[in-house]
Amino acid sequence: MITPVRVVIALCLVAPFVAMLWVGSYAKTDPAFIGIPFFYWYQMLWVLISTALTMLAYKLWQRDQRARQDTNGGAVK
């Protein structure tokens, strides 16, 4: 069953892949950040963003599973 929560979970997990596969959006040197070209610091920033999005997806998944157990009398289908 597709629910809004599961759509958000999927978006959280897919967003980093789309951001990293769309190389044209970050294949440049400017703007530099403390002397680091954009190409590098953008990717490093996505490491942190990906971690946060994965944690959010996991927490949402746990909450969704608990809600499904409550509505199905303890059994997950």
From TrEMBL:
Coiled coil: none annotated. Keywords: Membrane, Transmembrane, Transmembrane helix. The keyword Transferase does not apply. The chain crosses the membrane at residues 7-27, 39-58. InterPro entries: DUF3311 (IPR021741). The keyword Methyltransferase does not apply. This is DUF3311 domain-containing protein. It comes from Streptomyces argyrophylli. The lineage of its organism: Bacteria, Bacillati, Actinomycetota, Actinomycetes, Kitasatosporales.
